[in-house]
Write a structure and sequence with these properties.
By secondary structure, the chain is mainly β. Helices cover about 0% and strands about 35% of the residues.
Length: about 110
């Protein structure tokens, strides 16, 4: 019998960064995150934890976007420790997290 999983995320709000966006489900293919489908949507990766589960919930969004300019995560860099992050799941449950640490990563890293 498969273990019960928490509901999938469908939206996220980060007031301090001006984020209020839909969340789409994407995968990790050949070790790489599949990019979100557009400048204003955030991707959640189905191989990672769902909000409310133990483990890391991995989401990504564009900071800027070709032919658009600043995108959904353009202001994410101004977040401070303690910023509120609200994730809404398919059941309508709102889960509030507080930013505990910050790590910046840009683009593809060569190895």
């Amino acid at each position: 019998e498969a273990p019960h999983r928490a509901a999938r995320p469908i939206a996220i709000r980060i007031p301090a960064a001006g984020v209020n966006a839909l969340v789409e489900t994407k995968g990790i293919v050949d070790g790489e995150l599949v990019a979100p489908s557009g400048p204003w949507v955030i991707a959640w990766y189905e191989q990672t934890a769902r909000p409310g589960e133990t483990g890391n919930v991995v989401m990504s969004g564009h900071v800027d976007y070709w032919d658009v300019g600043p995108a959904v995560f353009a202001s994410l860099g101004r977040l401070e420790i303690g910023a509120e992050i609200d994730v809404i799941d398919t059941q309508g449950t709102e889960l509030r997290q507080m930013q505990r640490h910050q790590r910046r990563w840009c683009g593809r890293q060569s190895g």
